[in-house]
Design a protein that fits this description.
The chain is an all-alpha fold. The chain has one domain. The chain has helices spanning 9-16, 31-54, 62-81, 89-105, 112-120, 134-167, 177-218, 225-267; strands at residues 21-22, 29-30.
């Protein structure tokens, strides 16, 4: 990692907003986003496997009780929205919530720590928050997009789904087929776009705020009044924003999970 001591504010932020990549053009891969998302996915699986393996029918331990509380909360939320068989959707919702939460939580790491560790391995850039990468959020939202199509076909049949695309919401008159199809395509595409952009926008903004707060501490030089005030502001604002950001990362994970379930539930409804 390049030394940041001599970087200007603009260069510092630009450096931290640059991905570690391989490839070129369309086939560019953001290695940091891929590594962090896969690693946190493994952590999610390992966490639940550990609890399931050690679960006891008696009085649960604190960790087991905490996980059971999350599982029950997610299952109840899915049951209130999706009224069909939820044997697949409830575990999916649980996975989404925990995985997205952990990816969001990487924003709470000190700004310079991930890049410094990456520098030990010869990497010049490292962004630790996968959900602050539009590629990651769009990849997840495209999965939801295909799930919506799957549940639509499962509930209505392929013929019924195609018929609905051409006849809802304006009616079955042939002159209305094209307006119906265009409106349904816009509605269908807006779901993954809104999912991806909402999560990305919130996490990118949060990441940027942490960088701006970090710049307050960069002005520390000796014990002058100005530098001491800057450092104090750095600690106070950093702590305040981190506490508030815990709510944001939790809320964004919950919203992504709930909207996934809502979109799948809407797909099973007949018009």
């Amino acid at each position: 990692m390049a030394s940041e001591a001599n970087l200007s504010s603009t260069e510092y932020i630009s450096h931290h907003l640059t991905h570690e990549t391989v490839g070129q053009g369309f086939w560019t891969w953001n290695v940091d986003s891929l590594f962090m998302s896969i690693m946190l996915g493994v952590v999610t699986i390992a966490m639940f496997y550990s609890v399931a393996r050690k679960a006891t029918p008696g009085v649960p331990g604190r960790w087991q009780a905490f996980v059971e509380m999350i599982v029950e909360f997610i299952d109840t939320t899915v049951k209130e929205v999706f009224h069909l068989d939820r044997s697949f959707l409830a575990p999916l919702a649980l996975t989404i919530f925990v995985w997205v939460f952990l990816m969001n939580a990487m924003d709470l790491l000190p700004v310079d720590v991930p890049g410094t560790i990456a520098g030990w391995f010869g990497l010049h850039h490292w962004r630790a928050v996968p959900t602050a990468d539009l590629n990651t959020t769009f990849a997840m939202s495209l999965t939801v997009f295909f799930l919506v199509i799957f549940y639509s076909i499962k509930a209505k049949g392929a013929g019924g789904y195609v018929h609905e695309l051409f006849t809802a919401p304006f009616g079955a008159h042939p002159l209305l087929w094209i307006p119906n199809l265009l409106l349904n395509i816009v509605e269908l595409l807006s779901k993954p776009v809104s999912l991806a952009m909402r999560l990305f926008g919130n996490m990118y903004a949060g990441e940027l705020v942490f960088m701006l707060i970090a710049l307050l501490g960069a002005s520390w030089a000796g014990f002058t009044i100005a530098s001491s005030t800057s450092m104090l502001g750095h600690f106070l604002m950093g702590a305040g924003w981190a506490i508030f950001h815990i709510l944001i990362i939790t809320l964004q994970a919950f919203i992504f999970m709930v909207l996934t379930v809502v979109y799948c539930a809407m797909a099973t409804e007949h018009h």
